Structure formats: C-alpha cells, structure tokens
Amino acid sequence: MEFDWTDEDAAYRAELRAYIRKMLPKGWRGYDQTDRPAYKTAARAFAQGMAEHGWLTQNWPKEYGGAECSAWRQAILGEELTPIGEPRGSQYMNVNWIGPAIMRFGTEEQKLNHLRRIAAGDVFWCQGFSEPDAGSDLASLRTRAVRDGDDYVVNGSKIWTSHVGIADFCILLVRTGEPDSRARGITVLIVPMGQPGFTTRHINSLAGDESHYELFFDEMRIPVSARLGEENQGWEVVRWALAYERVGSTQYQRAAVQLAEAAEIAIANGKFDDPEIQSRFGEAWAACQAARLLTLKVYDLREAGSPPTADSNLSRLISTDCLKMVAQLSADVLGLEALDRKGPGIDPIRNASMAVASGTSEIQLDRIAIDFLGLPRSK
Ligand SMILES: Cc1cc2nc3c(=O)[nH]c(=O)nc-3n(C[C@H](O)[C@H](O)[C@H](O)COP(=O)(O)OP(=O)(O)OC[C@H]3O[C@@H](n4cnc5c(N)ncnc54)[C@H](O)[C@@H]3O)c2cc1C
C-alpha cells in the first residue's frame, strides 16, 4: 500500500510553497488585524492571487469555480497556510466549511452568487452561532426570527463571533420554531453585514486583539430567499458545517511549528537539559503526528464519499490537545516572559483557545463517546 502523496500533489505543494515565499516577507507571522482596512486588502490580495492560480477551491465543481480535484488538495492548502499565520485571513472559513455548506444546502441562486465569489477570493464571512447562554449547548439558542410576508424579522444577540471586523456576510443561526424546540426549530440565514437593525461590538480577549465581537439584531429584516436550507432544518447544516470546520485549519501543524520554536528557545536557555522537559517535547511531537494522521483520515473518508463522522471530533480533540501541550511547554520554558504580548510564548498560549472554538474538548469527547463508541447519553 502506498501512503505517500501523489507526484501531482507533491508538485502542487512545492508550487504553493514557492508562491508563499514570493508573496510574503521572510518570517511573516500573520497580519496586524487591528488595522482592519489594511488587513482586509492584504488578505484579499493574497486569496485572489491564489484564486488566479486556481488553488483556492480546487476540489469544487467547475461551475462554481473549482477544478474537480481531490479533497487532498484542501488538506495540503490547510497544512501550508495555517501554521504560518493564515495569509488568506478569515477566507479559510469560506473554503473549509461555509462554501461546502452552501454547496450542499444552498439553492442554485445562492450557489452561483456565493460560491463563485468565494472561489475568486473576493469575500469574507463570519459565523454567528454562539450566544451568551448557548455555547456548548448550541441547540438552546434564542435569537428569534419571525416570518413576516417574504421576510424574516430577527431579534436577539450573538457572542464570541470571530472575524467580524472585515466580514461581508454572516452565516447566522436563528430560532424559528417554538422556544423549547431545541435542534428541531433552528434555521440558517445568510445575512449581509451592515443590514439595518444589525450592529456589532468588539470584545477584548486573550485569543487576540481583533478576535471577538458581539452581534445585536433589532427588528432586522432578511428575505426568505436568504435562508440556507429549509426552515427549522438548520441543525443538519450546523452539524455538516462543524464537521468540516473541525478539520479545516490544521492546528496540529501550527502546534508543530510552535513546538519547534519552543525547542529552540529551550535549547538556548538550558531548559532542554532537563530530561522531563525533553520527554514532554517528545510527547507533544508524537501527538502532533497522531493528530495529523487522524485529520488525514477524515479527508480520506470524505474522498470516499462518506458523510461526516465522529472522526472529525477525534481529529479536533487531538489537534487542540497538541496546542494545549505546546502552550504549557512554552510557558514552562519561558516562565513569565511567555505572557509578553509581543513575545514568542504568547502565540501558542493564544492558539490554545482554539480548544474552545468549534466545540470545547469536553464537547468533542461527548460526541466521540456517543457517535464513535456508541455509549449511552447521560440523563
Ligand atoms: C478562539 C475562539 C473563536 C470563536 N469563534 C466563534 C465564532 O466565530 N462564532 C461563534 O458562534 N462562536 C465562536 N466561538 C465561541 C465558541 O464556539 C464557544 O465559546 C464554545 O462553544 C463554548 O461555549 P461557551 O463559551 O458558552 O462555554 P460553555 O458552553 O458555558 O462551557 C463552559 C465549560 O463547561 C463545559 N461544558 C459545557 N457543557 C458540557 C457538557 N455537556 N459536558 C462536559 N462539559 C461541558 C465546557 O467544556 C466548558 O469547559 C469562539 C470561541 C473561541 C475561543
């Protein structure tokens, strides 16, 4: 059995690396996201350049801007772009799960409108799921949409929404069923940012200066034609999108890069002489490799036409465990210096917050227990 990449995939990876070297300054570590217009312009230019090479959505159908390549091309894209600081900006979300959700659940008009713009590297999205009392228990969300003729009228709020400062659209979860309808009463809407009745507020957080926002909806009107999927059937969209989200950005690769940086620091400051530290570096490295295999397995299943399985929860759990191990090691190697906002330790510590995004580690474990191991739900 052959486990290596095909010659074509390997050549693609090499071309991608050469392009990255050409487009980004040496040692580039990500955008300064506090200068939103400059960030958006630079991220769009990078993504558009990739789109011109046909690299952004290679595994999509031709009519929506793809080249009908295998899903492995998306895996390579994630492995090359996530660890260096994601030069597509938040467009990684479009390609990883918002696009696939529109592809599966959208109307033909929505596909033509949105997928082509995503494939062209031209548009930024954010994801309005979590609410103040509906994070892990997402099915309890309360932002309400009431039908009024050809519109929905939306009232409520969201919290912890990432990438709002540069977004053009929000993929929004609303309750259209009875208040206690839980997963049976949720609908997905595609909402343009700046819609009347839609305001946002920035939140400072450890995850990064521009990371999080609150969203507020006050009698916001959205046409029924902007609904993604059927009314009250949004949970299926959510489950699909989250399964794609959990493997899309290759956190294990990011952890591996930061682990190598922490090792260099530990060798320089003598901490690496401690055998216990050495063995923890070894364990973290092994975990990164295991997470990689688990993630590639998800792509393999997808390539074989399988619907999402708990393998994506397993991949996410181990990948974010890697981030936590690397954050802890960085803190131990650097001491208090790790908390310096511009220092080398802070990035791994910030990244460890990804173990909360897209479902906390405990929620991944819940899904693995139920869907993978077949264990009964607790009462
Ligand atoms: C970096 C980052 C980016 C994010 N981006 C977005 C975004 O773009 N859009 C968006 O909608 N949201 C986003 N979020 C929010 C994220 O989805 C929620 O924070 C997450 O789902 C957890 O919800 P919560 O914060 O309400 O915590 P809670 O649900 O209140 O959980 C608190 C603690 O209780 C534990 N817990 C809860 N339920 C269970 C259970 N059943 N079994 C065991 N333990 C449990 C949790 O694991 C956690 O440790 C982001 C979060 C982060 C950190």
Brief rundown of the structure:
The protein is of the alpha+beta class and 379 residues long.
Walk me through this protein's architecture.
This protein is α+β, with helices and mostly antiparallel strands. It folds into 3 domains: 7-123, Acyl-CoA dehydrogenase/oxidase, N-terminal domain (Butyryl-Coa Dehydrogenase, subunit A, domain 1, Orthogonal Bundle); 127-233, Butyryl-CoA Dehydrogenase, subunit A, domain 2, CATH 2.40.110; 250-372, Butyryl-CoA Dehydrogenase, subunit A, domain 3 (Up-down Bundle). The chain has 11 helices and 8 strands. The protein has a 4-stranded mixed sheet. A hairpin with an 8-residue loop joins β6 and β7 (212-223). The longest helix has 29 residues, at 275-303. It is globular, with a radius of gyration of 21 Å. 42% of the residues are buried. The site of flavin-adenine dinucleotide has 20 residues, from β1, β3 and α11.
